[in-house]
Amino acid sequence: QVQLVESGGGSVQPGGSLRLSCAASGVILSVKYMGWYRQAPGKQREFVASITSGGSTNYADSVKGRFTISRDNAKNTVYLQMNSLKPEDTAVYYCHIVGQPDWGQGTQVSVSS
Questions:
Q1: Is there a contact between 54 and 40 (Cβ–Cβ < 8 Å)?
Q2: Fewest CB atoms less than 10 Å from the CB: which of 2, 13, 81, 101?
Q3: What pLDDT is recorded for position 95?
Q4: Cα distance from N-terminal residue to C-terminal residue, the chain
Q5: What is the pLDDT of residue 29?
Q6: In what order do the strands lie in the sheet containing 34-39?
Q7: 3-class DSSP state for residue 29?
Protein backbone atom coordinates (compact mmCIF):
# COMPACT_ATOMS: atom_id res chain seq x y z
CA GLN A 1 0.00 0.00 0.00
CA VAL A 2 1.39 3.36 -1.06
CA GLN A 3 1.68 6.00 1.63
CA LEU A 4 2.97 9.56 1.16
CA VAL A 5 3.58 11.68 4.25
CA GLU A 6 4.29 15.40 3.94
CA SER A 7 5.99 17.42 6.66
CA GLY A 8 7.80 20.70 7.15
CA GLY A 9 4.94 23.14 6.88
CA GLY A 10 4.45 26.00 9.30
CA SER A 11 3.96 29.72 9.70
CA VAL A 12 6.55 32.17 8.40
CA GLN A 13 6.82 35.85 7.62
CA PRO A 14 7.03 37.10 4.05
CA GLY A 15 10.50 36.55 2.70
CA GLY A 16 11.04 33.50 4.86
CA SER A 17 11.86 29.94 3.87
CA LEU A 18 10.53 26.46 4.49
CA ARG A 19 11.50 23.02 3.27
CA LEU A 20 8.75 20.51 2.76
CA SER A 21 9.40 16.78 2.75
CA CYS A 22 7.41 13.94 1.25
CA ALA A 23 8.42 10.57 2.62
CA ALA A 24 7.09 7.48 0.90
CA SER A 25 6.44 3.88 1.81
CA GLY A 26 5.16 1.09 -0.39
CA VAL A 27 6.68 2.69 -3.47
CA ILE A 28 10.14 3.52 -4.76
CA LEU A 29 10.05 7.23 -5.52
CA SER A 30 13.24 7.23 -7.60
CA VAL A 31 11.36 5.65 -10.52
CA LYS A 32 8.31 7.86 -10.21
CA TYR A 33 7.30 11.20 -11.67
CA MET A 34 6.61 13.25 -8.56
CA GLY A 35 4.81 16.51 -8.09
CA TRP A 36 3.98 19.09 -5.46
CA TYR A 37 0.58 20.76 -5.58
CA ARG A 38 -1.15 23.26 -3.34
CA GLN A 39 -4.66 24.30 -2.47
CA ALA A 40 -5.54 27.65 -0.94
CA PRO A 41 -8.87 28.23 0.84
CA GLY A 42 -11.68 28.58 -1.67
CA LYS A 43 -9.45 27.74 -4.62
CA GLN A 44 -8.78 24.68 -6.74
CA ARG A 45 -5.69 22.57 -6.22
CA GLU A 46 -2.90 23.79 -8.46
CA PHE A 47 0.41 22.53 -9.74
CA VAL A 48 3.56 23.84 -8.06
CA ALA A 49 6.51 21.74 -9.20
CA SER A 50 7.44 18.34 -10.56
CA ILE A 51 10.48 16.14 -10.99
CA THR A 52 10.87 13.18 -13.32
CA SER A 53 12.69 9.96 -12.56
CA GLY A 54 15.56 11.36 -14.62
CA GLY A 55 15.72 14.53 -12.54
CA SER A 56 14.12 16.97 -14.95
CA THR A 57 12.15 19.65 -13.14
CA ASN A 58 9.24 21.89 -13.99
CA TYR A 59 7.72 24.78 -12.05
CA ALA A 60 4.63 26.91 -12.05
CA ASP A 61 5.42 30.44 -13.19
CA SER A 62 4.32 31.79 -9.81
CA VAL A 63 7.11 29.94 -7.97
CA LYS A 64 9.85 29.83 -10.59
CA GLY A 65 13.12 31.11 -9.17
CA ARG A 66 11.90 30.80 -5.58
CA PHE A 67 11.06 27.11 -5.13
CA THR A 68 13.25 24.08 -5.81
CA ILE A 69 12.07 20.48 -6.03
CA SER A 70 14.57 17.70 -5.37
CA ARG A 71 14.72 14.09 -4.33
CA ASP A 72 16.90 11.92 -2.10
CA ASN A 73 16.58 8.40 -3.46
CA ALA A 74 18.42 6.87 -0.51
CA LYS A 75 15.77 8.32 1.82
CA ASN A 76 12.92 7.70 -0.61
CA THR A 77 11.92 11.32 -0.09
CA VAL A 78 11.06 14.28 -2.28
CA TYR A 79 11.59 17.84 -1.09
CA LEU A 80 10.30 21.29 -1.90
CA GLN A 81 12.61 24.12 -0.82
CA MET A 82 10.60 27.32 -0.68
CA ASN A 83 12.41 30.65 -0.45
CA SER A 84 11.23 34.26 -0.59
CA LEU A 85 7.80 33.17 0.52
CA LYS A 86 4.85 35.44 -0.17
CA PRO A 87 1.40 35.65 1.45
CA GLU A 88 -0.08 34.21 -1.75
CA ASP A 89 1.93 31.02 -1.15
CA THR A 90 -0.34 30.26 1.80
CA ALA A 91 -2.00 26.89 1.14
CA VAL A 92 -2.04 23.23 2.00
CA TYR A 93 0.77 21.57 0.08
CA TYR A 94 0.45 18.01 -1.20
CA CYS A 95 2.85 15.61 -2.83
CA HIS A 96 1.60 13.35 -5.57
CA ILE A 97 2.74 10.50 -7.78
CA VAL A 98 1.87 11.83 -11.21
CA GLY A 99 -0.37 9.45 -13.13
CA GLN A 100 -1.39 7.51 -10.04
CA PRO A 101 -4.20 8.16 -7.55
CA ASP A 102 -1.80 8.52 -4.61
CA TRP A 103 -1.73 11.76 -2.62
CA GLY A 104 -0.37 12.68 0.78
CA GLN A 105 -2.49 14.22 3.54
CA GLY A 106 -1.00 17.65 3.02
CA THR A 107 0.96 20.09 5.14
CA GLN A 108 -0.14 23.66 5.89
CA VAL A 109 2.02 26.60 4.89
CA SER A 110 1.01 30.03 6.16
CA VAL A 111 2.84 33.21 5.16
CA SER A 112 1.86 36.40 6.93
CA SER A 113 3.33 39.31 8.82
A1: no
A2: 101
A3: 95
A4: 40
A5: 82
A6: 10-12, 107-111, 91-97, 34-39, 46-51, 57-59
A7: helix
